[in-house]
Amino acid sequence: MLKIGTVETMTVLRKIDTGYVLEKQAEQSLLHHNETEKELEEGQEVTVFLYNDKKGNIAATTTLPTVRMDTYGWAEVVNVSPRIGGAFVNIGIAKEMLVSKDDLPLFESVWPKPGDKLFVTLGLDQKGRLLAIPASEGAMYREIELAPEDLLNKQITGRVYHTSKEGSAIITEEYYRGFIHHTERKREPRLGEEVTGRVIEVKYDGTLNVSLRPLKQHGMTLDADIIIEHLEANDGVIPFHDKSDPDDIRGTFEISKAAFKRALGKLMKEGKIEQRDGKTYLK
What we know:
By secondary structure, this protein is an alpha+beta fold. The protein contains 4 helices and 18 strands. Helix 2 packs across helix 4. It is elongated, with a radius of gyration of 26 Å. The termini are far apart. 26% of the residues are buried.
């Protein structure tokens, strides 16, 4: 039985107006003219990738994608539609594959955007249609390479393949796995987004802990700028001080209490702010 999402060697049965009818073990599929770059002859064997066309019929293409059933590869996001129920990715053939919303994060704010890339394989939905399915942690662990110890404090770039409240997992071009704890990011990156960060730990198992936050001396200036912006936007006063609740600080400024206190100290030393009555004022 022909299986969609796989590569098969089939025989050209005959040529028709729209393309070629292919056959294997008495089963047939259609290879459209625009799915092959050369003329084929009856009786010729041809290697094709099988998929469903818009009508649900088995169609063939001589373009052989790296993403197949039980085989993972990178696919670029080309369209995102909560109404339709997911994101469409390009696996290298004319037909775009749907990533179901069931396989995307709960919050649409961290769904991928066009141009992002997902590490996916192919599977079938309940109606037997092809879907692109993002790699799970278990599947990704079979792909990763051990990171060298000399990456400590080095800059790395990777794509987010898993995101949660706890943190974001990324994979680099070298297939090193990195984890970004939620305290080491100012915002939660999207699934499939490319991010660049600093390695803050090379773990015993060859995986990495990564920070998207700048070094303290640089981060202090950025955090101070954020506080000044909040003050200017609120008539020069904010209901925060160096003893404010850490969760309130993170919810408003997206920085830790320690970073907030460092930035306040910098601004007070520079004479730009003052604190009184549990509030901070712009001088």
